[in-house]
Specification:
- Two copies of one chain form a homodimer.
- The first copy, chain A, has two domains: about 170 residues, NAD(P)-binding Rossmann-like Domain (Rossmann fold, 3-Layer(aba) Sandwich); about 120 residues, 6-phosphogluconate dehydrogenase C-terminal like domain (6-phosphogluconate dehydrogenase C-terminal fold, Orthogonal Bundle), CATH 1.10.3660.
- Chain A is built from twelve helices and nine strands.
- Chain A has a six-stranded parallel beta sheet.
- In chain A, strand 1, helix 1 and strand 2 form a beta-alpha-beta unit.
- In chain A, helix 7 crosses helix 9.
- The radius of gyration of chain A is 21 Å and the shape is globular.
- The interface between A and B is large, with 121 and 120 residues.
Chain lengths: ~300, ~300
Amino acid sequence: MAYRHVALIGLGLIASSIAHAMRRAGMEARITGYARTEATRAEAARLRFAEVMPTAAEAVAGADLVILCTPVGAMGPIAAEIAPHLARGITVSDVGSVKREVIEAVAGRLPADVAFIPAHPVAGTEHSGPGAGFASLFDNRWCLLTPPPGTDPAKLAALRAFWEALGARVDEMDPDHHDLVLAVTSHVPHLIAYTVVGVADDLSRVTASEVVNYSAAGFRDFTRIAASDPTMWRDVFLSNKDATLEILGRFTEELFALQRAIRLGDGPHLHAYFTRTREIRRGIIEAGQDTPAPDFGRAGGAAGE
Amino acid sequence: MAYRHVALIGLGLIASSIAHAMRRAGMEARITGYARTEATRAEAARLRFAEVMPTAAEAVAGADLVILCTPVGAMGPIAAEIAPHLARGITVSDVGSVKREVIEAVAGRLPADVAFIPAHPVAGTEHSGPGAGFASLFDNRWCLLTPPPGTDPAKLAALRAFWEALGARVDEMDPDHHDLVLAVTSHVPHLIAYTVVGVADDLSRVTASEVVNYSAAGFRDFTRIAASDPTMWRDVFLSNKDATLEILGRFTEELFALQRAIRLGDGPHLHAYFTRTREIRRGIIEAGQDTPAPDFGRAGGAAGE
């Protein structure tokens, strides 16, 4: 069963990539969309990846799949706003980076005959807005579904097939476990990258141009992550508070142990630690989740060139 | 004045990239080399970017420029070993990521008529060894020289011209300030990346395959940095202890402030912080120190594609 009309609420990086990937996959579904700010709606309309509507109610009218693509903090109010305008028996999904709070904010606000099947495509870039999307964003990336108990198997299968057609690999997960896993692979790394860049920006003894010029030694990778959308990330931390704080606690514990090894001059401890972490990167490359090229290939030269 | 014979002590990523870049620049200088382990010497000999010698003494014999390309902890002993074999009045330099301790370990061990001019090319990748080098590694990257007071201007100019011919931009800096700046742009980011990856590897409630599969949400960038050479990095932290601990202190202070904002639900604080850090990335891209392509271009798609 393919969707005939997909409504995208929120028209940023993920929504525009969904639209581009739907067209690349040859889907003929109608795509309508809505964004809160007029500037975003105007830009999306100009880019023509969706029929942009002046209200969320008009965007969802007649849709058989509605995907919430806003920052997670906006999803509860949006669900309440669109609920009276949804066709009977359709599927509502989302793309939020946090699942437990989204379920609590959204599920209760939708009509009982609508299936809410939360989703999280684990993909993105540091760019945001309607112009940032591209068709291959989800290729070979994972999309995690956290269906509530009792979800209609046919509706679940349809959403899974939709994401697979966009290029993603699909898995199902418990929402609380999702939030813990993503705290490790995404939320805490982002908070730490923001912090590293913030500290560098704030030092009076090192100038901004020194930080900029000598960033190739490692720092510039952090700045990519720390250039991500501030509103999205504020909402992520506020809505995945418990898991973020738990993993942050583990992180500071480990950091203090390494800091102590540096202070005490414990070379063997440092060397053993730095050796172990190489293995994980090998796993990521073997799993097809990153490129083995030096500097992600941006160095402009291959080994032995 | 061009060098006629350059000796590279240590034959890893930086040394092999120097040799490739010298050839690309059309330099006709003889290039000799030495590495401590026989396996590295054999691999370098097979790759033929230098005449590999069985001892450091033989490698430096007759050279008018000797560059120490080993981990910084090995530079003092190497200086003592090569000192009796250096030709009179030549230049010795290095490529270490730390300058104050290298100066203390090396300068006093060299003959008085030899000019020791420390250097640090701020460039690298996560790969190591003789096969990791490539000719464009230094293109548009900065090479920082920390010449001691009274350095012969002609010798300083020659070393500067050498690095410019390899593609680098050259600047001079006080060694202590160098070590502080690099603690910010390189040493602390590396320590933090190692820690983030180490924590993920160590969690019993999140499996290794979950970390690997869902790494595209940010974590995989940290694994690239945390895949860097363990021996090199052990030595960096042990030899730049004070600046590393100072900047780590600033980092944990900031991190605790953000952690507190999350705990208290202080959205405006988080949003303001995350907005400020976007500016630094813009500066890095404008300075030509990184690519503006999403995900460093590895995403395989440009915006709007």
